[in-house]
Specification:
This protein has 405 residues and is an alpha+beta fold. The chain contains ten helices and 19 strands. Keywords: Oxidoreductase.
């Protein structure tokens, strides 16, 4: 499909929603194969490999213990983290100036940089265990988290137009902000998040507290998903590699066209968020933009169900920091239940390691340039949860205690 073949707004959106329906997926697959039995015989897009290999190609069943991805901080490392905190505070600089020079980690820094190589050249993820978050107030946690992450990713991405470079991932469904119509992002609910990627190269998540029940983090190798689909339905790889109409939900422009899958400089890159194609909750898909096709609907569900089958579950503990290659792996989250005693609360960074980074596909480059363009003095570090905003007026939520719990 070329841009000229993208469906017009007169064509109806397929029967597909944010939460995939396996019965509908199987029925759609059977219907499309009955209509055209030659679909599985179509070639892969030109230049795309028949099969990917390497350490980032894994299945969840390949892992037998979390010791394969958990890196435990030693007493020496924890002392360096404390020393780095004191050193940065003594400089009296804005938090945007946190970097490898202003937050020195004499031995841990080298360990973290080697782990960054694992993100780009290895399995694509690791967990740092554990920061004693109960020892620090919220600003100190932000300094420590940003300081250690500077050794993993040299560039921080802004997460909204206010220049916020950290974002709180927490259930805000009962908040005043959500009453004002911001119910379009699963990150601010207890709902299940389906497999997706964030923008940018790397994601970091520090866990300040866990939920009463659920909320398991799940990861999947994008190349492994590619291999299975390429072997069984190469026609769907072709669909994924062609332009899709991505809703901006009132942004400017109202929608953009981008592929979901790229073969770039020897790397298979997946970049997509399902809600931009299906809507979510009150943020329904805009009525005046092109619908996705039946082929795209099948491909979207195929991505999800293959990822579920091949994924690994991570046991996220209080004080853990999870680092993920967001262009090589897909990630998801189970639904969860909070209680007055236990409320799930993560803080996110978007990072890029300029020394190790993969080549960014041309269609993604404008977003990457914008993402990593915020200067140190313009970086904002909100210490309390707020909903990401498209304008310069974030809606802060009622204050919570300064000490992380």
């Amino acid at each position: 499909m070329t841009l000229s073949q993208v469906p017009t707004t007169a064509e109806a959106q397929p029967d597909i929603s944010y939460h995939p329906d396996e019965a509908k997926w199987r029925a759609r697959t059977a219907r499309r194969l009955a209509e055209n039995p030659a679909l599985p015989s179509q070639p892969l897009p030109e230049g795309f490999p028949a099969k990917l290999e390497g350490p980032i190609v894994w299945k969840g069943s390949d892992f037998t213990s979390e010791d394969q991805w958990v890196v435990r901080l030693t007493d020496v490392h924890l002392q360096e983290i404390d020393d780095g905190l004191r050193h940065f505070k003594s400089l009296n600089k804005p938090l945007g100036h946190i970097n490898r020079e202003t937050y020195p980690l004499p031995t841990l820094g080298a360990v973290l940089f080697d782990l960054a190589k694992e993100l780009y050249s290895g399995r694509g993820f690791f967990v740092l265990r554990t920061i004693p978050v109960e020892k620090y107030n919220r600003e100190e946690i932000a300094i420590i988290y940003t300081g250690i992450s500077a050794y993993v990713g040299s560039a921080r991405g802004k997460q909204d137009v206010t220049g916020a470079v950290i974002a709180h991932i927490k259930d805000l469904s009962m908040s005043h902000a959500h009453e004002k119509g911001h119910k379009g992002n699963t990150a601010y609910t207890t709902d299940k998040q389906v497999f997706h990627t964030d923008v940018g190269d790397l994601i970091a998540l520090i866990c300040l507290s866990t939920s009463e029940e659920g909320g398991t983090s799940r990861l999947c190798s994008g190349p492994s998903v590619y291999n299975e689909i390429a072997a069984t339905r190469p026609d769907l790889i072709k669909v994924l590699a062609e332009p899709w109409p991505l809703d901006s939900f009132g942004g400017k422009p109202g929608y953009t066209f981008k592929p979901l899958v790229y073969w770039e400089d020897g790397h298979m890159i997946i970049q997509y968020t399902r809600r931009l194609l299906t809507g979510y909750g009150e943020q329904t898909r805009s009525p005046h933009i092109p619908a996705i096709t039946e082929a795209q609907a099948e491909a979207l569900d195929t991505l999800q169900f293959v990822a579920e089958k091949l994924s690994v579950a991570l046991n996220f503990q209080k004080g853990d920091v999870q680092y993920i290659n967001s262009i090589g792996l897909l990630h998801a989250r189970d639904g969860f239940r909070d209680s007055p005693e236990k409320t799930r609360h993560l803080i996110r960074l978007w990072l890029r390691n300029d020394e190790l980074a993969w080549k960014t596909p041309a269609p993604l480059q404008p977003n990457w340039t914008k993402l990593y363009s915020v200067a140190p003095d313009n970086q904002r570090f909100p210490l309390e949860p707020e909903v990401r905003k498209k304008d310069n007026n974030p809606i802060p939520l009622p204050p919570t205690p300064n000490v992380a719990t």
